[in-house]
Amino acid sequence: MANRARSAMLMGLAVAVAAWMGGCSSDAQQQTTSDGAVSQDADFSVCKDTAAVVYMPGINVNSTTNDPQVPGVYVATLNSAVTEGTPQIVGPEIGLNTWVVSITNAADNTPANVTMTAERPTMPLHGHGATTYPVVTPGDPGKFTLSEIDFFMAGYWEQKLNLMPASGTAEKATFAICVPQ
């Protein structure tokens, strides 16, 4: 009987250790560049249970208005993101980031005729954000480059964009991005 109890106890301990080890595994994922090369191993567990998404080219969000009864009329698409350095890293990372964003009309997917500004990136769960504003440079119709986006630590970040049409109501587009550890 003692051997059976000891075996059951050891089996239970082995199952507990295996479950613990599985729970402690890293959420490391590989991101790849457009040519298929691996750009990094990153741990996205810092964003678990948040609204943040892992960066992939083509992430899009619908714009919103100040009135919840009035839907937004634009779609913002994050076409590319790089973190400055040598070498540059594909995707948001700790450091200064540069994004290329396009804004289209939701109704017909044509480039939107808007001007855009960017708010300071914030960490909603921490109650703070970067101290600087990204620099917004317009490009082709509906395309903008945001540079000097300062993600100074890993975690769930929001980057809000202010979209202002020549006439009509201003709208916001918010990207909820995970900056990995």
Report on this model:
This protein has 181 residues and is mostly beta strands. The protein has one domain (28-179): Immunoglobulin-like, CATH 2.60.40. It has one helix at 2-23, and strands spanning 28-32, 38-43, 59-64, 71-83, 89-90, 95-105, 114-118, 122-123, 128-129, 135-138, 143-151, 155-165, 171-179. Strands 3, 4, 5, 6, 10 and 11 form a six-stranded antiparallel β-sheet that branches. A three-stranded antiparallel β-sheet has the order 7-12-13, with no helix packed on it. The longest helix has 22 residues, at 2-23.
Mean pLDDT: 82
Number of strands: 13
Q: In which range does the helix fraction lie?
A: 10-25%
Name the helix and strand elements from N-terminus to C-terminus, one letter apiece: HEEEEEEEEEEEEE
Taken from the alpha-carbon principal axes, the silhouette is globular
How large is the count of helical segments? 1
Looking at the structure, the CATH topology is Immunoglobulin-like
Beta content comes to over 45%
User: What's the CATH class, please?
Assistant: Mainly Beta
Distance between the termini: 49 Å
Number of domains: 1
Nearest-angstrom radius of gyration? Answer: 22 Å
Instruction: Return the structural class.
Output: mainly beta
Segments where pLDDT lies below 50 for 5+ residues? 1-39
Write the CATH architecture name: Sandwich
| Major sheet | 6 strands, antiparallel
CATH H-level superfamily title: Macroglobulin (MG2) domain
Key terms:
single chain; 1 helix; mainly beta; Immunoglobulin-like; 181 residues; 3-stranded antiparallel beta sheet; 6-stranded antiparallel beta sheet
